[in-house]
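hey m, so remember when u said the tokens were messed up on ur end? i reran from scratch. heres the input so u can diff it against urs
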Amino acid sequence: MSQIRIKDAAVFLGVSDDTVRRWIDSGLLESTKDSSGRTTVDGLSLAQLARKNAVLPADPSEIGRSARNRFVGLVTEITLDTVMAQVELQCGPHRVVSLMSSEAVRELGLELGSVAIAVVKATTVIIETPGGNA
């Protein structure tokens, strides 16, 4: 199993090192010592905690669809020209960018601060690992 140092676990969860230590002390996360004597947490346990604590607003549309990747967020930027537009959403900790027609922006009534849902249906998802581990 992958072992993650406390400082890195804090970054992945978006909390402080002290919060991770409190979670270890309370039994929410199990820890071990690495070969250098540093406290680490199990990568799988960390991933499960991240999933459990993930906070994204619920999809308010109540529409059934086949795409599983839906991100509810707020419009933070719109770059518009006569034909095309770039729309940025902040969906929890994720920035999602969409390119669409300017006509679609107008028809959807998108404006800065409005709520929108990014629906992603892709045939290719690229996953990378740090340090070139393949």
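this time it looks ok to me. Residues 113 and 129 are 34 Å apart (CA to CA). if urs says something different then somethings off w ur setup not the seq
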